[in-house]
Amino acid sequence: MSQERPGQRLVGDLWCEDVLAVLSDLVDGELGSEVQDRVRAHVAGCDECSRFGEEFARVIRALREGLGPAEEPGPNVEARLASRLASVLEKRSGR
Ligand SMILES: [Zn+2]
User: Does the structure show a pLDDT above 70 at 60?
Assistant: First the structure.
């Protein structure tokens, strides 16, 4: 696999933008545990995603425990994570 995407990393069989693409399904709890594991593996191994991985992990943990996001509604969490990832990638590819 020599595929390259500017500002993106391929970790755990997922690109950063792949993680972003499934984020809404993840928040909705519509991802299978296999995909969730791949997303978490990416976040754990990706420098860019790990910058907000703590918040990401907190959301996922809350979902897994069936509690829902503790402080903010799901859609806002999704939007905030998405915009944060977008800005990280933008900054990275701008250099
Ligand atoms: Zn990433």
Answer: no
Dihedral, CA of residue 75, residue 67, residue 48 and residue 86, to nearest 10: 0
Q: What domain count does the chain have?
A: 1
What's the domain range around 45?
A: 12-89
- Give the other-Cβ count within 10 Å of 85's Cβ: 20
Tokens of 35: 């995909």
pTM of model > 0.85: no
Tell me the CA–centroid distance for residue 92 and ligand 1, in Å: 12
The rounded distance, in Å, linking the Cα atoms of 10 and 67 is: 31
Q: How far is the CA of 45 from the centre of ligand 1 (A)?
A: 8
Helix (H, G, I), strand (E, B) or coil at 11: strand
Residue 31 lies in a domain: yes
Q: C-alpha angle with apex 71: 69 to 73, nearest 5 degrees?
A: 60
